[in-house]
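Researcher: Next entry in the queue.
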Amino acid sequence: MSLPVIDSSSAVRTELLHNKVNNFRSVKADDWECFRDLRLKALRDAPKAYGIAEEDVATTPDDDWKMLCQESAEGRGKWYFVAERDGKLIGMLGATEVFGKHMRHQVEICHAYVEEPYRRQGVMTQLYMGLKARLQQVEHLEQMIAWVTLHETQTSKHFFEKVGFTLAGTLSKTVKYEGQYYDCCWLEAPLRP
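Model: Structure for this entry, 193 residues:
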């Protein structure tokens, strides 16, 4: 999938990126095992970033992973994009419809992760551009929200701000990891101008 470059500084990264990453696409139903493994790796690699631990998700039944990928493939309230290299998933970004009749116009951006060797090469930007383009095709969706843990690097917060999200609010002591508390923030962005 060829996606637009969002600024000239990412053009060089995108050229480098295409030397390593073969494909950006929507998740398919039969991706469930690779998707599960990448999700668990993300939780293992950055436990305080997500607010949940690998062990919280590791016991999820295979049928639940299969259903998540099937629903995403069909666009039934879940949309996930993946980056792959030589058939191996190396990055993911998703969105889930906010539950409730009066909140269905919003999606929560989730599962943001890129494996270490592929970071700072525009992979997450390409995942985001693909996901946003897919979400814009869903008529009732209007707004994206992202929940971000504010830890040392704040990489996720900076990324979302770079692609147009604005701070909506901050909650204190939301995540507790190894005895230390971390604040979290909500960011928001419209799906359409």
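Model: The longest strand covers residues 166-177.
Researcher: Noted, moving on.
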